[in-house]
């Protein structure tokens, strides 16, 4: 029985660690003008990707080695840097339309970038043979909750920062992208 509790506790902490990136990026993203309906949808999609990506990683982890994990981290970091740079550029150029918004394809790209580290974790979990359903449910639920908290906090902070909120939000995305690449 203590083995199950230990494994659950480890998965819970791993879920929190994976969800913290969704929280920090959502904090920056929440500084944009987002409606509550959009915030709810973003959290759901990010949570779904935090289930799908590690599931794919678990399947592939049982088939291939861990060497692909470095490429996924590189792709996720570059994607977040690109989104952050675009947000900052649009803050300086008020006439520029935002290329990537958390709507449709932009939301899919954002959720993919946030969950790419979950894929790498899934690779290692697939090799270790962890309880797949429990891990995936925890990853999805925790990341959705942390994403919603970050978006709502960012929305509140936006009122205090005004015009500079987009610059701060973009810099948070860029900083997290660099942290993924070099951290």
Automatic annotation (TrEMBL):
Q: Which residue ranges run through the membrane?
A: 6-27, 39-64, 70-92, 104-127, 133-154, 161-182
Major place of residence: membrane
Where in this chain does the entry annotate a coiled-coil region?
Answer: none
Per UniProt, what is the membrane topology?
A: Multi-pass membrane protein
Question: What is the designated name of this protein?
Answer: Putative manganese efflux pump MntP
| A GO molecular-function descriptor | manganese ion transmembrane transporter activity
GO cellular component terms, A-Z: plasma membrane
Keyword set includes Transmembrane: yes
List localization entries: Cell membrane
Assigned keywords, A-Z: Cell membrane, Ion transport, Manganese, Membrane, Transmembrane, Transmembrane helix, Transport
Task: Please describe what this protein does.
Answer: Probably functions as a manganese efflux pump.
Family assignment from sequence similarity: Belongs to the MntP (TC 9.B.29) family.
């Amino acid at each position: 029985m203590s083995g199950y509790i230990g494994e659950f506790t480890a998965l819970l902490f791993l879920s929190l660690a994976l969800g913290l990136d969704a929280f920090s990026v959502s904090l920056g993203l929440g500084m944009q003008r987002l409606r509550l309906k959009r915030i709810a949808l973003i959290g759901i999609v990010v949570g779904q990707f935090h289930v799908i990506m590690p599931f794919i990683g678990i399947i592939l982890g049982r088939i291939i080695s861990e060497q692909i994990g470095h490429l996924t981290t590189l792709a996720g970091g570059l994607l977040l840097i690109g989104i952050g740079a675009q947000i900052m550029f649009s803050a300086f150029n008020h006439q520029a339309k935002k290329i990537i918004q958390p709507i449709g394809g932009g939301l899919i790209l954002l959720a993919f970038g946030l969950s790419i580290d979950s894929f790498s974790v899934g690779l290692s979990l697939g090799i270790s043979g962890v309880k797949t359903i429990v891990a995936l449910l925890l990853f999805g639920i925790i990341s959705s909750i942390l994403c919603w908290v970050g978006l709502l906090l960012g929305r509140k902070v936006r009122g205090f920062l005004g015009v500079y909120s987009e610059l701060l939000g973009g810099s948070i995305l860029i900083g997290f992208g660099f942290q993924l690449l070099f951290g």
